[in-house]
Design brief:
Strand content: 15-25%
CATH topology: Rossmann fold
CATH superfamily: Vaccinia Virus protein VP39
Number of domains: 1
Strand order of the largest sheet: 3-2-1-4-5-7-6
Low-confidence stretches: 1-10
Number of strands: 7
Mean pLDDT: 93
Helix content: 25-40%
CATH architecture: 3-Layer(aba) Sandwich
CATH class: Alpha Beta
Largest sheet: 7 strands, mixed
Shape: globular
Distance between the termini: 29 Å
Order of helices and strands: HHEHEHEEHEHHHEHHHHE
């Protein structure tokens, strides 16, 4: 994957496993003793590493060789495979659980990826994803400064009702959704991690390690938006902008399903 082969080089400088999110993923997986787990779209292996530290046995897959090289260095005992979620090279009923953390919007086919995950899960196995909806993305105050980027980001993921249909069509029964609102102490600086601290958005490394700014925004829009944002932070106008985007949609979404 060209995008993550590019941004993967400095990814770990700002993208770290957040303790709250790690704990949430662990709870949603409801791990079993001696279970085997897969992180689909594992990137540099930060969450895989954090969950392994809780005693889980993980495998990792990702289409970016650059990301996997970093993942291997910090997880030498883990088996990694360079592949896409739509074509997982493991036998049926191999894993007790699968995570997909901020990755589904990069898949070529979400329905096919979900079918593959269902296939490799053991009966009773759990699928846990962390993603977002178009409605949530359009509720980011970033839309005030980077409207084109936000529109394109919203188009990378299906609406909640369609996502639910995709998960159920893959074979899963009950699907549970839970909203996540960005916390002030968030340690993983993905796109909307700047929600409570807009000045973070002005730091190049913060933007360069998110696919939104790297792949979905054009240079002119970013430059103009940053100038406007910097001025609004200086004058305090940013507070009114943020207030105008307050909503109950949630910023991201936990998805949990069982085979």
């Amino acid at each position: 994957m060209v995008l993550y082969d590019t941004i993967g080089k400095g990814y770990n400088t700002t993208r770290k496993a957040d303790p709250y999110l790690t704990g949430k993923f662990y709870d949603l997986l409801a791990p079993v003793k001696d279970g085997i787990y897969l992180d689909a779209g594992c990137g540099t292996g930060n969450y895989l590493h954090a969950l392994s530290a809780k005693g889980l046995s993980f495998y990792g897959i990702d289409p970016s060789e650059t990301m996997l090289e970093k993942a291997m260095r910090q997880n030498p005992a883990v088996k990694f495979t360079c592949c896409k979620a739509e074509d997982i090279p493991f036998d049926d009923h191999f894993f007790n659980g699968v995570t997909a953390i901020l990755t589904m919007h990069h898949w070529d086919s979400i329905p096919q990826g979900l079918k593959e995950i269902y296939r490799v899960l053991k009966p009773g196995g759990r699928f846990v994803s962390f993603s977002f909806t178009p409605e949530q993305v359009k509720g980011y105050w970033l839309a005030h400064y980077f409207p084109g980027m936000i529109d394109r980001a919203a188009n990378t993921i299906p609406a909640l009702s369609e996502m639910e249909r995709f998960v159920k069509d893959a074979g899963f029964g009950t699907v549970n959704f839970e909203k996540y609102f960005v916390r002030p102490d968030l340690e993983d600086h993905f796109m909307y991690s700047c929600k409570h601290e807009p000045e973070r958005c002005l730091i190049p490394e913060m933007r360069e390690n998110t696919s939104g700014f790297t792949a979905l925004a054009n240079h002119a829009e970013v430059a103009a938006g940053l100038l406007k944002l910097e001025e609004d932070i200086r004058t305090g106008k940013i507070n009114n902008v943020i207030k105008g985007y307050e909503n109950g949609f949630g910023d991201y979404l936990f998805i949990a399903a069982q085979k």
